[in-house]
Design goal:
Shape: globular
Number of strands: 14
Distance between the termini: 12 Å
Largest sheet: 6 strands, parallel
Number of helices: 10
Number of domains: 2
Low-confidence stretches: none
Helix content: 25-40%
CATH class of the largest domain: Alpha Beta
Structural class: alpha/beta
Strand content: 15-25%
CATH topology of the largest domain: Rossmann fold
CATH superfamily of the largest domain: Glycogen Phosphorylase B
Strand order of the largest sheet: 3-2-1-4-5-6
Order of helices and strands: EHEEEHEEHEHEHEHEHEEEEHHH
Radius of gyration: 20 Å
Mean pLDDT: 98
CATH architecture of the largest domain: 3-Layer(aba) Sandwich
Length: 369
């Protein structure tokens, strides 16, 4: 079958690109004729080797711009809803859009773009509910999760600078307020001291905010450190890592306290790397995270401030507010009881990883025809 994947792919390090690349890789394994159109341009370091022969530059202002031609048997795009009409117009069937709005209230007028697709594929039940609340018909929606490829973890662990025994990782692809980096630092700083055998490893972008919902990590971190001069060790990684899986393998715990997540691939990657996972007990991640395979931090549902929201803020939007005391307790418990915890959680972790693979994700999409 001739398949087109048109979206962010190879111009930046972005979760949408990871999803599109991995689904495309599985389709290639199944001998489909897949064409990749990268709408954010092409930077060599973001291009996987398997994708190169099939990749076209579809960035509007690129001198190498290529427009899709003809009709495709299937079209897939993980993109903003306003792009559905343009990116899924080269065929009359199997038009599948992947999208998750990381908020509880979809902006007004966005729901109309669902008419341009055969199926809209939210990645979790949480994400699906956001669309249902926006009056998108349920028969338009199919929950298709994200996944991992266990073969991607056949790499050497990343070489860290820290000499501490327990490495607590947070991979934050986007410096958005909802990622709650300030809460992550605050709980970690209260859970440990510089004398404890633990280090927080933060993989973050080194960029200034461009929108109201972004933060400057350097400013945030410097403020935290100035108030915690004798606080626990933190290692910050700004550089691009070709194989992010190597960083998970180098650490012991992945720790997140997000206010909102529609899935959260890093938590799944942590399990695939056979590492302990700590996350907020809310949102899309609870589709695959539970007390049998991870440590979930409790909290309350509260108002979502406008500066946390994308595009058009809603006064009715909600978000999860993790309980700092519970986060501190879970962090200490994880470090003090690591081996026994892993022994208890590992069987369920392995079952989760076996279920949530890109191969299974792709089979589910093909089954929607």
């Amino acid at each position: 079958m001739r398949v087109k994947i048109q979206q962010f792919l190879c111009g930046k390090c972005h979760s949408w690109a990871v999803v599109g690349q991995c689904i495309g890789r599985e389709l290639l394994k199944l001998d489909h004729n897949v064409e990749f159109f990268s709408t954010d341009g092409i930077k060599d370091k973001y291009v996987p080797d398997y994708l190169r022969p099939f990749l076209k530059d579809n960035k509007a202002d690129s001198p190498n711009f290529v427009e899709p031609q003809g009709t495709y048997g299937m079209q897939i795009s993980y993109t903003a809803m306003k792009n559905f009409p343009h990116f899924l117009r080269h065929g009359n069937q199997n038009k599948f859009a992947i999208y998750n709005y990381d908020g509880s209230v979809l902006p007004e007028h966005w729901a109309k773009y669902s008419h341009c697709v055969d199926k809209l594929l939210p990645s979790s039940e949480y994400s699906k509910k956001v669309f249902l609340d926006a009056k998108i018909p349920e028969d338009k929606l199919e929950v298709v999760p994200h996944g991992i490829d266990i073969e991607d973890f056949n790499v050497k662990p990343y070489k860290l600078k820290t000499k501490k025994s327990i490495k607590i990782l947070n991979v934050c692809g986007q410096l958005h307020r909802r990622k709650n980096l300030s809460g992550i630092l605050d709980a970690y700083g209260k859970a440990f001291t510089k004398d404890d055998d633990a280090c927080l490893v933060l993989k973050v972008a080194d960029k200034l905010p461009e929108t109201k919902f972004e933060v400057s990590f350097r400013d945030l971190y410097n403020k935290w450190r100035s108030n915690n001069k004798n606080g626990p060790e933190v290692e910050v990684i700004y550089d691009y890592i070709d194989s992010i899986e190597s960083l998970f393998l180098a650490c012991d715990i992945h720790y997140s306290l997000s206010n909102i997540e529609c899935f959260h691939i890093p938590s799944l990657q942590s399990m695939a790397a056979k590492k302990l996972t700590i996350q907020s007990n809310y949102g899309g991640s609870v589709d695959f995270m539970n007390d049998s395979n991870s440590l979930l931090v409790e909290g309350n549902i509260g108002r979502c401030p406008p500066r946390y929201q994308y595009w058009t803020p809603s006064p009715y939007a909600e978000m999860f507010i993790p309980n700092s005391d519970d986060a501190i307790e879970k962090l200490r418990y994880a470090v003090d009881n690591y081996d026994s915890l892993m022994e208890r959680l590992m069987p369920a972790m392995e079952k989760t990883v076996e279920q949530y693979t890109w191969a299974n994700v792709t089979k589910q999409i093909i089954g929607l025809q």
